[in-house]
Amino acid sequence: MTFHPTYSDHVLMPDFRFAKQHLAEHFLDAMTAHVRTVKRLEEPKIKAHQTDIEKLEQALSDLRTEDLPDYHADVPDLYFAFNKRLESRLGQDTVSFLRMGLSRNDLDMTVYKLRTRDLLLKAISHMGNLRSLLLDGAETHLKTILIAKTHHQPGQPTTVAHYLCAIDNALSRDMDRLFDAFARLNTCPLGSAALAGSSHALDRDFTAKALGFDAPVSNTYDAVASSDWQVEFVGVMQSIALTLSRFINDLIDWASRGVYVLGDGLVQGSSIMPQKRNPVALEHARTRFSRTLGSSQMVLYSSHNIPYADLNDFGPDIQGALISLFIQMDGGMALLGACLEEGHFDRGKLAREASCTDTTATELADVLTRDCNLSFQEAHRLAAALVKETSAQGRTLQEATIKDLMTIGGPEIDATFLHDALNPNAFVRRRSGVGGPAPDTVKAHVTVARQSLSQNLDRLAQLLSGFAQIRKNLANPQ
Prior knowledge:
This protein is mainly α. The chain has helices at residues 5-22, 24-39, 44-48, 50-63, 78-90, 92-95, 104-140, 160-185, 204-210, 220-225, 228-257, 280-302, 316-342, 347-355, 361-372, 376-392, 402-407, 415-422, 424-430, 439-475; strands spanning 145-150, 153-159, 187-188, 215-216, 260-261, 344-345. A two-stranded antiparallel sheet has the order 1-2. A two-stranded parallel sheet has the order 3-4.
């Protein structure tokens, strides 16, 4: 059959090339697992043709070392191109054992799950690298004061370590979400055929195990019709992209003030302004995460408002969007990782920024409440008045004296109390409760976070090792 040139050019050929580039290995894995399942059938015909089935399994193994088929207008997809090559060597009768109880519906969905599983595990690996860099930075900057903003205004002193641990907290949850998504994704559609399964007694548990799945999809209709596992993966990717793009927004702001400095290989100069060090690596990372969000919408809208059935919307259309999403995410994570490795916080500039703000006013109010028996409302009013008074005089809040406080109606307190209340380092040290920025508190948090990360990375390593062995077994005829 020769397809219409327009259909061939705009659908079949690009889909074939996509499958050839991204899915060929998974097709061969799934086809091999199915043939091994067929070989186990107790049907008389299967028993009588074990040698032929073994030849078919060997031929599938041989395909792995050969050049992949090219697109031809009379072959609709990569699966049929593989079939055609096998038939030219073994004949249709032998290759028919591959097609017993097998539909492109369950085969394609299995291949898509295998591919998405790979992408998901790579995402976990990238997350592990970023989290390790964040925790390294936190350990380096336990006492580095950072003035945090609320509503785009200076808010309170914290530390670089406290901030980086906040980002790590969010990424830790996303790493857990990826593992959760993996558990729901890792079920096998193969053996579901078109949608109702097969009358051949295919051992779907055996097939699932051969491909490294935890179990078969428990409903054959669900196996070929659902796309929630793809949408869930995309949802986690969106969450990661949102957190990292917000983080990059802060890094760019700090870079613009010179308190975060990128390595020379990650900045560009200006064609006209000699002084410029443009943080282009961060800008490109941010756009990668924006494009991740854009690609995610392609997946969601391909899954929207269509019948609950096997459809092309779930096939080549979504797969292209998923790969595009991952390419953007992969690039953004790599760029951000390089910026964290090759960038550094300027402690001196951060300290000077901290000394020039009135962000310790909260602690002054707390001191007046705790040590002078004032209501917080009155203490808040006095602290605000002191900020206004010192600012009007062109002085910082940290330069305020007991006399200044008494002039606005405040109590006479010990000078040491006032000094510590207005000191950013003391502000941070005093906040030693659970989750606070005090250095010892954050250090303990980092220790726990590293232990959790190590456990996740050990789990990832075990999965990757297991899947590598499974692929090795599939590639070698049994």
